[in-house]
Amino acid sequence: MLLADRGFANHDLLKWLQLTHWHWAIRLPSDTLIHGVHRRGFGYSIRELYPPKREAVFYKNVGLWEDAQLKAHLALAAVPAAKDNWAIITDEPPTLKTFWQYGLRFRIEHLFLDSKSGVFQWEMSRVRCAERLERLYLVIAIAVLFATLVGMAVQKDGLRRQVDAHFRRGLSYLKIGVRWLNSFVHKAYSFLRLDHLVYLDSTPCFPSQKARDRYYQKITFCLIQEFDACA
Fold first, then answer.
1. Rg for the chain (alpha carbons), in Å?
2. Tens digits of residue pLDDT in 86-112
3. pLDDT (0 to 100) of residue 207
4. What is the DSSP letter of 95?
5. What's the pLDDT tens digit per position in 128-150?
6. Predicted confidence band at 118 (pLDDT cuts at 50, 70, 90)?
7. 179-182: which pairs have CB atoms within 8 A and are 24 or more residues apart?
8. Which of 25, 171, 173 is nearest to 103 (CA)?
9. Per-residue pLDDT tens for 12-55?
């Protein structure tokens, strides 16, 4: 399944996904026009369709954008804990699972942040050539993999508190690995035996108790509605 943010929603991508039979869930910007949600013949912007707080609404087979040529299912939700309302289009029947599936995309957000500015300061390179950026990111990707393996080795050997003061792990394996490598250079820390990447993390990372509580907070809705698109 392809999961994509608002900047990737366009005609060409959806046509390609339909042609290649990929499943997908893509977020829409609030000014996107939607057709078929009411019997009147004109479209409504997403911002006009958002439900009240703690409610979710699903529309099947709506038309997208001004021409309404492309069809998709639309899932809308207003969650009190979320900064923005959710508007997701998908090729699968819309349910609450649609939001959960799209949420999987956020797992990679921290990796992008670390690559850009959090660890390797990629943005500071000021490189604008696409080919050079590709080569640079290849080097960064190798460094990310190596530092992550080091961080996992530090955790496995029970040495994390030497570079991460949190009682429970508060840093990503990447940042733990980078800190250990810095100490390896400047403080003569030992070089650890590296193993394979961990598939399931038994010790989730939370920088604070508030972040931990927010992660495990259950999202509930007081009203869920479903509609078929109007002709």
1. 22
2. 888 898 888 888 888 887 777 677 677
3. 61
4. -
5. 888 888 888 888 888 888 888 88
6. low
7. 180/150, 180/151, 180/154, 181/147, 181/150
8. 25
9. 888 888 888 888 888 888 888 888 777 666 777 888 888 888 88
86 vs 90: CA distance, rounded Å: 13
CA separation for the pair 189, 178 (Å, rounded): 12
Q: Distance between CA 88 and CA 75 in Å, rounded?
A: 5
Helices and strands (H, E) in the chain, number of each type: 7, 8
> Which residue shows structure tokens 């949190």?
166
Q: Helices 130-156 & 173-186, crossing angle to 10 degrees?
A: 80
Which DSSP string do the residues of 167-196 spell out, in sequence order?
A: SS--S-HHHHHHHHHHHHHHS-PPPPPP-P
- Whether the CB-CB separation of 197 and 186 falls below 8 Å is answered with no
Contact status, residue 45 vs residue 70, Cβ threshold 8 Å: no
Question: Can you tell me the distance from the alpha carbon of 136 to that of 133, in angstroms, rounded to the nearest whole number?
Answer: 5
